[in-house]
């Protein structure tokens, strides 16, 4: 009962603070609703970025990957720091100079309206089919398990899961659809504090559990028992081979932190460029510390349970249940619930923005006043949330959640990144090249990962069976070597798409060179020390890899 009361109390406190912080914002205008009145400061931007990124698909999924593969999966966190620095120095000044509300708006100015529409549609499809359902499913698994909802309500596991999905979906929709971006960002910032505190408690109690009550003894025991699992470069057969850092991994990071609407929208809402850059750099520094929350618990779970869990995605919830004192479970569940809501309502708010600005205003009712655009954006948000709630239970058999999410995202992430890079790096590549690039990139990736890869893997495993190979570790290596890793495929397609677009630009260039205009909506004087701080962060990441390389 104490756990439930603390859960309800903390969640209610966040809602009340968010209400009072946003009640003076004019949410009948596009800037007010979609960008919080362009008023966000560095701390709010960093907190919102952290919580938008961190949810149960990250906390549960990445710790599950660490349970299987060890420290090398930290690449998803540490390389993010470099991508955020690049965004702060190179991309954000260009976004704010153009006064953008959505990333696809730039594509309309650089190429044409249909390019923007295709990109917005790809974003929205990815959100409703993949991202929103995964967030709802993984969050519901965690909440249902921590509160033992099946036993508490005397229902089946499946029914409990559905009830949690709809509970999270409805509450998250209220924040995102009716509160606008500022409500989302403020609630994110409060929950960020709780997540950092609660997230650090898990590895602390976990290390104490394996170190006879002493944290540093536990860390010593962990490193002594399996020193090879602390190798930052990893080994063959892993989810994230070390060489992917130099191919598709960095591209995925650049797409996510530099062009993905759900993330970059926080920086677009900055009161000025300097605040936006400081917010991004602060978030970048926090990502370096991310493995403490997102990787270390999975490695502790491997040692604690002696690698005996039936599924790697059980590593984090089982460790929480085993080591966290009972009185703290309610607080931690509230923090985790806040992280779930954050990711869900952030994606939903970005979806509402994309629909309202890029589709409704552009194609359905060009004369619509801003109040009408906001109203229909909210209606679309409700429909999207309902669709995600219906799809979420179907994710149950998707396998490794984190890996599944990253691989599926490749359908739209690399094509979108390609046309944005070409858009800013060239002046005469035409709109037809962008359309070809984004459509060919998506189709080629789908053919590669969902037709060619299964065929090659199947043939390799059949060959192994014919040779009498049955050892699981050998079969895993054979499967990994049968076809290029999906991150390598992303890099290959990125280069191929760029080449295609440049060739089209050479033979069918724009009639006039593109020149970006300064809208003067945002003051764009940069943060004085943005480059120095950025270089320091990059050197820190490189130093971490060198230190842990074996």
Automatic annotation (TrEMBL):
This protein is called what?
Solute:sodium symporter family transporter
Q: Which family does it belong to?
A: Belongs to the sodium:solute symporter (SSF) (TC 2.A.21) family.
The UniProt entry lists membrane topology as: Multi-pass membrane protein
Tell me the domain of life: Bacteria
Q: Which organism is it from?
A: Muriicola marianensis
Q: Where in the cell is it found?
A: Membrane
Keyword set, alphabetical order? Membrane, Transmembrane, Transmembrane helix
Q: Which residues cross the membrane?
A: 6-22, 34-54, 74-96, 117-139, 159-178, 190-210, 240-259, 280-305, 328-355, 376-396, 408-425, 432-452, 485-504, 529-548
Which PROSITE patterns does the record cross-reference, listed alphabetically?
NA_SOLUT_SYMP_3
Output the InterPro entries linked to this UniProt entry: Na/Glc_symporter_sf, Na/solute_symporter
């Amino acid at each position: 009962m104490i756990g439930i009361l603390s859960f309800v109390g903390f969640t209610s406190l966040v809602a009340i603070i968010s209400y009072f912080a946003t009640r003076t914002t004019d949410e009948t205008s596009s800037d007010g609703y979609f960008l919080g009145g362009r008023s966000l400061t560095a701390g709010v931007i960093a907190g919102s970025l952290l919580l938008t990124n961190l949810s149960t698909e990250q906390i549960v999924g990445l710790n599950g990957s660490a349970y299987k593969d060890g420290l090398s999966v930290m690449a998803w966190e540490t390389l993010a720091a470099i991508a955020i620095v690049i965004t702060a120095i190179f991309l954000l000044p260009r976004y704010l100079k153009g006064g953008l509300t959505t990333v696809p708006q730039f594509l309309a100015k650089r190429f044409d309206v249909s390019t923007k529409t295709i990109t917005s549609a790809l974003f929205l499809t990815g959100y409703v089919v993949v991202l929103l359902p995964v967030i709802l499913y993984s969050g519901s698994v965690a909440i249902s398990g921590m509160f033992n909802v099946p036993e508490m309500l005397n229902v089946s596991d499946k029914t409990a899961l559905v009830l949690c999905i709809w509970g999270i979906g409805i509450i998250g929709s209220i924040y995102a659809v009716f509160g606008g971006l500022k409500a989302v960002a403020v609630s994110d910032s409060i929950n960020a504090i709780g997540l950092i505190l609660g997230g650090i408690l898990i590895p602390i109690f976990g290390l104490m559990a394996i170190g006879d009550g002493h944290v540093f003894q536990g860390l010593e025991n962990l490193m002594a028992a399996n020193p090879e699992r602390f190798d930052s470069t990893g080994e063959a057969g892993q989810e994230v081979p070390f060489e992917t850092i130099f191919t598709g991994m960095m591209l995925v990071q650049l797409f996510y932190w530099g062009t993905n609407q759900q993330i970059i929208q926080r920086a677009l809402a900055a009161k000025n460029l300097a605040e936006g850059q400081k917010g991004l750099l602060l978030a970048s520094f926090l990502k370096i510390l991310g493995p403490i929350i997102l990787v270390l618990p999975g490695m502790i779970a491997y040692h604690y349970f002696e690698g005996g869990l039936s599924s790697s995605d059980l590593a984090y919830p089982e460790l929480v249940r085993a080591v966290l004192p009972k009185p703290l479970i309610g607080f931690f569940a509230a923090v985790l619930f806040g992280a779930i809501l954050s990711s869900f309502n952030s994606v939903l708010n970005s979806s509402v923005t994309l629909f309202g600005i890029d589709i409704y205003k552009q194609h359905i009712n060009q004369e619509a006043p801003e109040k009408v655009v906001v109203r229909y954006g909210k209606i679309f948000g409700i429909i999207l949330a309902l669709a995600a709630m219906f799809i979420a239970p179907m994710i149950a058999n998707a396998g490794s959640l984190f890996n599944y999410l990253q691989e599926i995202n490749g359908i739209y992430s690399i094509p979108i990144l390609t046309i944005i890079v070409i858009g800013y790096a060239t002046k005469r590549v035409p709109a037809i090249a962008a359309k070809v690039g984004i459509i060919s990139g998506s189709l080629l990736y789908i053919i590669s990962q969902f037709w060619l890869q299964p065929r090659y893997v199947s043939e390799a495993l059949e060959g192994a069976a014919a040779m009498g190979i049955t050892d699981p570790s050998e079969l895993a290596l054979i499967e990994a070597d049968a076809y290029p890793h999906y991150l390598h495929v992303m890099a290959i397609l990125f280069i191929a798409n760029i080449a295609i677009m440049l060739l089209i630009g050479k033979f069918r260039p724009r009639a006039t060179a593109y020149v970006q205009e300064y809208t003067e909506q945002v003051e764009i004087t940069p943060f004085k020390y943005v480059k120095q701080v950025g270089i320091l962060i990059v050197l820190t990441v490189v130093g971490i890899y060198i230190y842990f390389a074996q």
